[in-house]
Amino acid sequence: MRMYDLIRKKRDGGQLTEEEIRFLIEGFTKGDIPDYQMAAFTMAVYFRGMTDEETAALTLAMAHSGDVVDLSAIEGIKVDKHSTGGVGDTTTLVLAPLVAACGAPVAKMSGRALGHTGGTLDKLESIPGFNVYMTPEQFVESVNRIKVAVIGQTASIAPADGKWYKLRDVTATVENVSLIAASIMSKKLAAGADALVLDVKTGQGAFLKKFEDTVKLAETMVSIGRRAGRKTVALITDMNQPLGRAIGNALEVKEAIETLRGHGPEDVAELVPAPGTQMPLPARAADDAARPPRTAHDAAACGRPPEKFREMIRNQGGDPRVVDDPSLLPTAPVRTVVEAPRSGWVDGIDAYALGDVTMLLGAGRRKQDDVVDHAVGLVLHAKLGSKVEEGDVLCEVHARRPEDVAAVEERIRNAFSIGPRAPEPRPLVLRRIGD
Ligand code: URA
Ligand code: CA
Predict the structure, then answer these.
(1) pLDDT digits (tens, 9 = 90+) for 253-288
(2) pTM: predicted TM-score of the whole model, two decimal places
(3) Given 183, 186, 223, 386, the catalytic residue
């Protein structure tokens, strides 16, 4: 078999066999297939798509490209939550300590920034000393002892995805249903949790902007999960504006801490319990089965989330004092604001543009080996439905250098649409797929 022929077949709209897909994934993982051929193949998939059979075969080949973790040594039902990628999506940072504080084991493997979206690992690494890598033994031991660990995909878990993810990030090939489904589900299957809660983002700030594509992605992932014997639920959630107010690594950690303390932004506090209620919360929260926690505040009542976050940070080598004093997180030297050019109601926010701007400020990578700047990002002062007067602050910009701000200021201003009327409020959770 030759990679050349597989690229050609996909370029011309053909369907790959299971054997061809295994050849592709094994060859790429081992390094026999070079990045340039894989990049060409990926772009062909972007334009031609994959059938359900190809996607299922791809997911399994990727899941078995490395170790499959055995979490059976952890007591209880192990739940993993995964977002398909949004802008300012702080939910894992809130949900992990929150659910663990309620007594349910959270054994979570997270990812890095991808395209215009941030990644939980990069965010956690803005906490001084925080280490996102553990051996499988340390991972199991941590979750048994303190109920929570959030770690990176080690080189041994779905290595095909680890490598491919980095390549897709810098070749504009993220936005494809099959590639996203296989990427997420391969790691989730290899990471060994019993149940999965998928937060599938839709709208302008998501990888998939069209609602039908999002539904297809959610259904594909739920079906792959179930066939593999994992209880899988997907929530389709709105990404037509950034989640919360902060976008950027340290800024989002700060926002997560505020939410754990019960005074985070409304939408974060509203969204967090949505996946949270899908997680089998034991003890006080779930005993009261008729009334699962409906708000972050409510869920917070069943445990002590800030304390749990401190414990999680300490366990992973980070400085737990950031929970009480977020000023210990890295801060950017240049701060400025973008003001409203006229009065009115904010009736649109281009989440993609704001995510992209944050990455350009340095919060993500332009090339594979770029170093992430943890301090930079944006803090929104206005959200959809905010009433603003001319000159009001729309957004704070936290940057490394003044010229970085100059390069993005106009784009930030244009990302806010200001109209004469308040827009209709939109629900955050649009659909549930699975039980
Ligand atoms: N998140 C992932 O893990 N993979 C993708 O391809 C997109 C989002
Ligand atoms: Ca946020």
Answers:
(1) 999 999 999 888 988 887 877 776 666 543 333 344
(2) 0.88
(3) 183
